[in-house]
Amino acid sequence: MKHRALLKNRSIVVSVLISMVVVAIAPLLIMSLQGYHCARQAVFQLTTSQLATVVEAKQMQITDWLGEREHELQSIAAFAGLQIKGNFEGSTVQSLFKQAQINNPAYESITLYSTDWTRLADSGHHLHDDELLLQSTFKIALSTGANSVISKPHIHKDGMIGIHIGIPIKGADQYIIAVLDLSGTLYPILASPLAQTNSIRSYIVSSDGLFLSPPGEGLQPFENRIDLPPELIHNERTAIYSDFQGNSVVGVSVPLNSLGWMLISEAPTQEALVWLRMLQKRALVTGLITL
Q: Measured over all CA atoms, what is the biggest interatomic distance in the chain, rounded to whole angstroms?
């Protein structure tokens, strides 16, 4: 009987001790989970903040470059207008266009058109004829408005990204249409790290899902289309998702309103959250020492 009573007492003592340990550990576990969640959110916000800095800087570079070309063409149109109002000579305007090409190789061509869309002067065409230049929607927008018109980008088979900018010449009822090669500008901007780490990758996704990245990515832009996660297109424009190669990444997006495309910068999730794994290990060691 004494032996049974002793065993029973020990069982009660063990149960009490276990209950006390559980009661003591439970709040610590809850606090640890809450701390981990807060730390994960903080790390995610820090990563997305760094990515946002990069993607917004690239967005500004692209927007500023387009704005500069638009103002440049407005100046060319103003000078051409003065020539036209005086004694119009196609050779003078053509020389002006050619000089603009020399000053900035981004101009694939610059052309002067009349109101009936007859070509009056041009700098020479390499990739575009009148059928490609004078799309109906572009002509309507240019002829019915007083401001410049920028077409949606298009991609040639050699990877060139082109846009058309149309400028009405005030008082002359004529139009200047320039074709710009964005490739030489966009690709270097995308390739520029603008951060302490080289693991951040930036690329553009067009309105129809076309993937555009620097040639170093090893992908042909006119052969690859991807679907962006909804989070990058709407709401917060930040997300953790699988990229086009199936790797987990943290991404931030901004719109390129003048082009109608989306600019994304992303970093590998494993690298972005590496500090969080270190925190997990430290918390585990601290917990074991505490016990």
A: 127
